[in-house]
């Protein structure tokens, strides 16, 4: 209840400065900056190669460094100016896409043309796959956040859910020698932590942000303690889980670039993508979703028409726990291979960032998670080719983007109205 | 003895009033019971994770005595070590009396407790003062890092004489934290961006900035290839209070002085009044003509400076060099300290001492009982969960509702 009615930039500027125009102004500026800076720094003699297949000899796209950096920069400027001039609403997402992609391409032309000799190429398949792999836990964590917060319960404890899921997944999968047992255990562990969150937040009315922070500490301490006491001494018996296998989907896996990157993946990616669709349809097309959103926006009104507010919230928080727990299992059963103390290292908070950056919607969360996954993958790749851009600064991007988003520099994000406010009848 | 014919109405004696109020939801009882509940849960964890004790439970129904004795032994030994590491070890006292060790050794546990408590008091205050202003500062961790960086840089880059150097380094640390805190405060004031979101994000930005900075030429220790900075000059280090081997340094004195200062500001100054007014009801405060935005910025600036001092006390008092994890999570532990201290300066001081003691004792427990120090984090989290949900403690122990000083569940609010 402490929201202060600070006049938002949008309200002050009003009519002319629509979302599209502000976005256009930002991308025009970025495009001009990119054209000048990237163009000036790019090498005029070396080409940037974009590999389209999985081996070095396969088909590729060769773009001269300097020309590419300047050309793509100008495309970005053009897209920005078009948005600024004003076009039909339905063209906006496409223009935005063109602007982002061309800006990234301009940047890559510069980076690849100045890479260490012999490393002036970017394997697209690997980058797309790596981005999706890095995004898996972020998607699941952000979806857990969507489930929670759309029903009006703030979930800052995604990091904690990841940790207990990763731990339980590794432990049980090793003991039972089955990934499925591990995934189930991770779901149960996430459920239990969510139960604690639900009971304390909904029944005992504890401040939900406080609660999330403390539950993160509890999960960190608990998994760290059990790791030291149980796993560390006998890694083979307790911390050597089998890994999920990749499934190749017939036909789809034959599509160039996307095929080998996306459709020869493991359970977690398919589960995450499927869940995005299910939650999107559920939230916006079903009676369940309407009730969830009503409870998250205006619980009193929902209660008046007979929706059981607390029940809806309990159910959603518990579901979120399962989703985030499975997301945690992806760390130990697919990404890292074994459990380690504090192994999630802030990924839960990037998932929270993806949730906010994606405006509390499943599709938005997916896109934000992919963007952050791409930044993550690119940071590692650029470091390998000897880029002058420190990988730490690329790693900061998700957090910076989120600050810009909540500060309303490029369109303000808004949380569900009753998010974080406990409902007391009467 | 002449009894008055009509004895005056009996006033409740102090003792009786005390007894009547002990078993109620007053803050002290709830805190103590929260501590007890956490210790019991911790004990269960110790038992479950000990393979030898677990084995005795496999024949529990044949000989329950074995399991219970084994459990009691391992738990009591662990907690005894916790206490010995935090306050005093009777064995050391005996040896000091016999003249085998110096008397300083007797105070070693206390010194460690004070050492660990110092940054926690600072970060606890940083979170508490923001709470009182109606803001939730999750960013203490980032502010600690930025403060620590500034203090350490001033500590090994500036060639200054004794005294002045320490002063400058401490000031730099406070400014570094204040800068980082005021970003979140300024964004809140100007754009309404929620401070919880911005401070979480700023934490990680600070962390990555630290990771990059300590590998740069002129910052990284020239003799090392791993991620560690040069050492802070002797002139900028916080002097030891007693001397070797007691590691406690001037920082704890500073922490107590700052607690006093924060208490004074909150109770007596105009800024403190405005801060509390804005925290209690921003709309009313605005109607009364206070600048809400200005107050938010100032609160986060002060909170950041306090957290920055925590970072400085670590960089100049214990670590002496920057490493990627020099902050040791004190920013997050500070949140629990502030909650346990109920966002009151002196409460934060006590809570900081308690958690510092648990940290110090945890080290001893890890060495002597082979029980991982992570248990301390679990205990701290549990204590705060129970304190934050007094209704839960009330239900478990069947407490009566207190007449005065009733605990309300901490403020519940949205993004």
Number of helices of chain A: 17
SS strand fraction of chain B: under 5%
CATH structural architecture of the domain at 107-370 in chain B: Orthogonal Bundle
| Beta strand % of chain A | under 5%
Write down the secondary-structure element order of chain A.
HHEEHHEHHHHHHHHHHHHH
Please outline the major beta sheet of chain B: none
**Any idea what the radius of gyration of chain A is?**
23 Å
Strands of chain B, total number: 0
Supply the number of helical segments of chain B.
17
Helix content range of the residues of chain A, please?
55-70%
Low-confidence stretches of chain B: none
Q: What is the third-level CATH name, the topology of the largest domain in chain A?
A: ABC transporter involved in vitamin B12 uptake, BtuC
Q: Largest chain interface and its two residue counts?
A: A-B, 62 and 62 residues
The end-to-end span of chain A amounts to: 18 Å
Rg of chain B, nearest Å = 24 Å
Alpha-carbon distance between the termini of chain B? 70 Å
What are the secondary-structure elements of chain B, in order, as H or E? HHHHHHHHHHHHHHHHH
Major sheet of chain A = 3 strands, mixed
Averaging pLDDT over every residue of chain B, what do you get?
Answer: 89
């Amino acid at each position: 209840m402490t929201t202060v009615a600070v006049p938002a930039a949008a309200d002050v500027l009003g009519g002319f400065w629509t979302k599209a125009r502000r976005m256009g102004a930002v991308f025009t500026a970025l495009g001009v900056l990119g054209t000048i800076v990237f163009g000036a720094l790019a090498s005029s003699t070396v080409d940037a190669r974009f590999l389209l297949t999985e081996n070095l000899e396969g088909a590729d796209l060769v773009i001269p460094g300097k020309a590419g950096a300047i050309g793509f920069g100008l495309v970005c400027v053009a897209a920005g100016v078009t948005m600024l001039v004003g076009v039909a609403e339905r063209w906006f997402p496409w223009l935005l896409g063109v602007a982002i992609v061309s800006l990234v391409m301009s940047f890559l032309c510069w980076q690849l043309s100045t890479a260490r000799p012999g490393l002036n190429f970017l394997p697209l398949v690997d980058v797309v796959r790596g981005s999706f792999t890095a995004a898996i836990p972020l998607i699941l964590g952000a979806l857990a956040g969507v489930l929670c917060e759309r029903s009006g319960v703030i979930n800052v404890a995604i990091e904690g859910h990841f940790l207990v899921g990763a731990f339980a997944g590794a432990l049980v999968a090793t003991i039972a020698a089955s990934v499925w047992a591990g995934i189930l255990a991770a779901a149960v562990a996430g459920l239990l932590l969510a139960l604690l969150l639900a009971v304390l937040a909904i029944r005992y009315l504890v401040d939900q942000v406080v609660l999330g922070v403390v539950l993160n500490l509890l999960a960190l301490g608990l998994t760290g303690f059990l790791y030291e006491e149980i796993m560390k001494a006998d890694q083979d018996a307790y911390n050597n889980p089998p890994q999920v296998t990749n499934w190749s989907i017939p036909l789809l896996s034959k599509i160039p670039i996307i095929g080998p990157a996306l459709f020869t993946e493991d359970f977690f990616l398919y589960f995450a993508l499927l869940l995005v669709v299910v939650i999107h349809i559920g939230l916006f097309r079903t009676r369940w979703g309407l009730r969830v959103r009503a409870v998250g926006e205006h619980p009193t009104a929902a209660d008046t028409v007979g929706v059981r507010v607390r029940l809806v919230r309990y159910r959603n928080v518990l579901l979120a726990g399962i989703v985030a727990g499975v997301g945690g299992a992806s760390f130990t059963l697919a990404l890292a291979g074994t459990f380690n103390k504090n192994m999630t290292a802030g990924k839960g908070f990037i998932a929270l960032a993806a949730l906010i950056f994606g405006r509390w919607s499943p599709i938005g969360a997916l896109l934000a998670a992919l963007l952050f996954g791409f930044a993550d993958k690119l940071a590692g790749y650029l470091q390998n080719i000897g880029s002058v851009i420190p990988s730490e600064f690329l790693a900061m991007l998700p957090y910076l983007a989120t600050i810009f988003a909540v500060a309303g520099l490029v369109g303000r994000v808004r949380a569900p109205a009753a998010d974080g406010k406990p409902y007391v009848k009467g | 003895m002449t009894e008055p014919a009509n004895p005056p109405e009996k006033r409740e004696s102090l003792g009786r009033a005390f007894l009547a109020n002990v078993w109620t939801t007053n803050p002290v009882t709830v805190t103590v019971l929260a501590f007890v509940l956490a210790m019991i849960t911790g004990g269960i964890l110790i038992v479950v994770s000990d393979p030898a004790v677990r084995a005795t439970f496999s024949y529990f129904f044949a000989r329950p005595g074995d399991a219970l004795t084994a459990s009691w032994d391992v738990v009591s030994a662990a907690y005894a070590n916790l206490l010995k590491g935090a306050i005093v070890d009777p064995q050391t006292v005996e040896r000091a009396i016999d003249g085998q060790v110096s008397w300083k050794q007797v105070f070693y546990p206390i010194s460690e407790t004070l050492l660990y408590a110092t940054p926690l008091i600072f970060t606890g205050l940083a979170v508490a003062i923001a709470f009182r202003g109606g803001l939730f500062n999750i960013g203490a961790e980032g502010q600690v890092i930025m403060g620590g960086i500034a203090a350490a840089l001033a500590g090994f880059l500036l060639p200054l004489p004794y005294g002045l150097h320490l002063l400058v380094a401490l000031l730099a640390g406070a400014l570094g934290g204040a800068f980082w805190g005021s970003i979140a405060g300024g964004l809140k004031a100007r754009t309404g961006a929620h401070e919880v979101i911005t401070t979480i994000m700023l934490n990680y930005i600070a962390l990555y900035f630290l990771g990059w900075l300590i590998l740069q030429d002129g910052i990284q220790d020239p003799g090392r290839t791993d991620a560690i900075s040069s050492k802070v000059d002797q002139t900028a280090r916080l002097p030891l209070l007693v001397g070797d081997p007691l590691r406690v340094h001037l920082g704890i004195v500073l922490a107590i002085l700052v607690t006093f200062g924060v208490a004074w500001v909150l109770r007596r100054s105009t800024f403190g009044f405005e801060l509390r007014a804005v925290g209690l009801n921003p709309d009313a405060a605005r109607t009364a003509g206070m600048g809400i935005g200005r107050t938010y910025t100032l609160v986060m600036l002060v909170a950041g400076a306090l957290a920055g001092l925590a970072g400085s006390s670590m960089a100049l008092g214990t670590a002496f060099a920057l490493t990627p994890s020099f902050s040791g999570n004190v920013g997050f532990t500070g949140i629990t300290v502030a909650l346990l201290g109920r966002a009151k300066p002196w409460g934060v001081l006590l809570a900081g001492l308690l958690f510092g003691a648990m940290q110090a004792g945890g080290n001893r427990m890890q060495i002597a009982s082979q029980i991982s120090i992570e248990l301390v984090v679990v205990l701290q989290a549990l204590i705060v969960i129970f304190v934050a949900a007094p209704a839960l403690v009330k239900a478990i122990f069947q407490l009566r509702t207190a007449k005065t000083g009733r605990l309300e569940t901490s403020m519940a609010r949205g993004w």
